[in-house]
Amino acid sequence: MSAARTRKKSDAKANTALVIVESPTKAKTITRFLGDGYVVLSSYGHVRDLPKSKIGIDVEHNFAPHYIVPLKAKPRVKELKIAAKKAGRIILATDEDREGEAIAWHLTEALGLSETKQPTERIVFHEITQKAIEEALAHPRAIDTRLVNAQQARRVLDRLVGYELSPFLWRKLMRGLSAGRVQSAAVRLIVGREEEITAFKPQEYWTIGGVFITNNGEKVIATLIKRNEEKLEKFSITNKTVADETLHALANARYAVAAVTKKELKKSPPTPFTTSTLQQDAWRKLRFSAKLTMMTAQQLYEGVELGAGGSTGLITYMRTDSLHVAESALAEARLAIVARFGENYALAIPRRFKTKSKGAQEAHEAVRPSDPARHPDDIKDHLTPQQWKLYNLIWRRFIATQMEHAIFDATAIDITTEGTADRCIFRANGIVKKFDGFLAAYPTKFEDTVLPVVVEGEPLTPETVDGTQHFTEPPPRYTEASLVKALEEYGIGRPSTYAPIISTIQARNYVEKNEQRRLQPTETGTKVDALLVQHFPQIVDVAFTAKMEEELDKVGEGETAWETVVGEFYKPFHENLEQKYKEVVKENMDEPTDQVCEKCGKPMVIKTGRFGRFLACTGFPECKTTKTIRKTTGITCPQCNEGEIIEKKTKKRRTFWGCSRYPDCDYASWTNPVKKKEEAEEMRTKEEQSPEESEE
Questions:
Q1: Is the model more confident about 368 or about 97?
Q2: Distance between CA 445 and CA 222 in Å, rounded?
Q3: What is the pTM of this model?
């Protein structure tokens, strides 16, 4: 090869940069923004991890982790090594959080970049747009070892707990169980809520209300709020006797308007989305699970094809606990608001928010549209229904944060008694929307409550004045949204872990969703939680788990060595575990039955496995007969009229109802037939009532 050709090839290499990201979608989007001289490849996630076959941590030597390249990642690593040799420099463009920083570091190690001394740069960006990529390339930095150490500490801690505590559960309860440092604390919240519900005792209370007629024949509905200048609280009237006594005192009362108060109320818009609030709102408004929300947000972030415009990222990075918004985005939001809603909806000075979340990184941004001018309807044809719904939610929430307050006219009418020994005050409240403000972009359910026009001193005629009995209700079971909120409030986990936590505890059959799509513990989850609460209280203690998160944050800030954090946790944990192996007696979870094995004639018992209860022969291991326990409904199959409808589970543990004669009959339904039958019978009973009975 001539010297000229060699020099030409060398120059081409020197001018070529290899950009490595995690996903092929992200690679495709970034390629569009880079010119000649750049090659963008994907690592397809992590290229190194701890081995699955063993613990992979040297606890005797400062918890040194033993990383390997998983089998499925080896072809990709080989390809990246070849591409790296052909490049003049390497640019690591993985996500901007701890996980992304760790992937960048693992790439450096797996590709041997530190040994070859090849020029390697780290770039980060909050959104995948032309401007953001150019800005990132202009300001490269080194890998942040503090963030790498924080991720490594979390990984090591979780591996130690999982690989040491899970075998204990196998030995003392049953095989197939697992425990996790954060997942067990989340299960504790759900089991704890179930315990509150079980222990709950309803408390009775009464309210006194009246319907009053004005001089113009209009109705005013009001509630008793004061009696003899004493303000009535929720439990001031505790039973029917007290309610009847109050009503007796009002028996011959005359009523008149005591006061009419009017004032203007302003409602502020919500904050921009963080990971937590995005998951909560996506559940409430769209019924998206946390997992679906994050998967869809990832697609919007990494890039979507917009026809001739090519692929671009539609939102900023979705794993964040920061409320910070770039000044350029605030200015762009104002232009979009003026164009869409009018000048009177836009703020003169941008609204900025202060992050309250512990450990939040202010350098990060809130979740927002990368281009506020890109209205959801303008790109609807290029998005899947799920992508459009989530983008629409994110766009409207962000735009609302930079809009004027919503303004309401609130009216209160106080009605006083006359001609009685007791002076009582009833109050009616009304509210009317005067200016929708941010609600034009981010509407909420609202109905005007218009009160009649009355004047002070105007007499009113009582149409009805009576008491209503109420009972307090137990705390509700968690939904995915309220659990995410609780995890954030208690400091359990971080933005990147909320969705995986919820997915994990369901996948392991510790928690399931009921018909109302609320989370409740399974029998297995309750038993595992009880054992951990008794013998490993720190593992499930919410405050302790939150403190560990704070320690990991300190590692990420460079205040504490990751080995120190792991060591302080592991030593007492391991010592307690060894002691518990000696002390705790294996729990016999078998329940006797009157059934006998069809094959050997020995008694059958009910056992509890990872996925619930089942029948098993006591002759095990010689006889391995097992039977599934089906929850029967006593309802005949409407399709074949022979089988019985029984409760079943999908592979993902979702409940449905099907025919007991399957596969001969393939009837299946998501609707609970027992509940459906009860509702039908209730409706039929109402229809069969006579008019007099219905009236009563």
A1: 368
A2: 23
A3: 0.84
Task: Say yes or no: 250 and 293 in one domain.
Answer: no
Using alpha carbons only, give the angle 54, 55, 58 rounded to the nearest 5 degrees. Answer: 120
Residue 280 shares a structural domain with residue 342: yes
Whats the size of the chain, residue-wise? 696
pLDDT at res. 679: 62
CA neighbor of 644 nearest in space, from 676, 613, 667, 671? 667
Query: Is 317 tagged catalytic?
Result: yes
Q: Are 23 and 133 found together in one domain?
A: yes
- Dist. CA 458–CA 335, nearest whole Å: 51
Beta carbons within 8 Å of 104's beta carbon, 6+ residues apart: 92, 94, 122, 143
Instruction: Return the percent helix, strand and coil in the chain, to nearest 5.
Output: 40, 20, 35
Q: Do both 543 and 612 map to the same domain?
A: no
Q: Are residues 33 and 136 in the same domain?
A: yes
DSSP-assigned letter for residue 68? B
Give me the CATH number covering residue 538: 1.10.460.10
Helix (H) or strand (E) holding 656: strand 655-659
- d(CA 324, CA 328) in angstroms, rounded, equals 12
Considering the domain architecture, whether residues 123 and 29 belong to the same structural domain is answered as yes
Taking the CA atoms of 43, 45, 50 and 53 in sequence, report the sign of the dihedral they define.
negative
Phi-psi region of 64 (alpha: psi -120 to 50; beta: other; left: phi over 0): beta
Q: How far is CA 125 from CA 60, 276, 304, 363, in A?
A: 39, 21, 17, 11
Per the CB < 8 A criterion, the answer to whether 472 and 203 are in contact is yes
Reference 616, options 646, 590, 647; nearest CA is 590
In the beta sheet, which residues pair with residue 205?
470
In angstroms and rounded to an integer, the radius of gyration of the C-alpha atoms of the chain is 32
How many distinct structural domains can be found in the chain?
A: 5
Rounded distance, CA 605 to CA 63, Å?
44
- Residue 1: inside a domain: no
Note the pLDDT tens digit of each residue in 412-470. Answer: 999 999 888 789 999 999 999 999 999 999 998 888 899 999 999 999 999 999 999 99
For 297-331, write each residue's pLDDT tens digit.
999 999 998 877 778 999 999 999 999 999 999 99
- The reply to whether 371 falls in a domain is yes
Which residue type does 533 have? V
- 332 and 347 together in one domain: yes
Catalytic residue among 317, 345, 442, 498: 317
Q: Is the peptide bond before 202 cis (omega within 30 degrees of 0)?
A: no
Residue-range definition of the domain harbouring residue 416: 204-268+406-471
- Please list the residues that pair with 416 across neighbouring strands: 256, 425
Residue 241 has which token pair? 């006797």
Residues 419, 399: Cα–Cα separation, whole Å = 56
In 3D space, the residue among 615, 620, 623, 625 whose CA is nearest the CA of residue 595 turns out to be 615
Question: What confidence tens digit (pLDDT) does each residue in 618-664 have?
Answer: 888 888 888 877 777 788 888 888 888 888 877 766 778 899 888 88
Distance CA 7, CA 61 (A): 48
Find out whether 480 and 282 touch, Cβ atoms under 8 Å.
no
Q: Coil, strand or helix: which one is 689?
A: coil
Let me know whether 285 and 379 are in one domain. yes
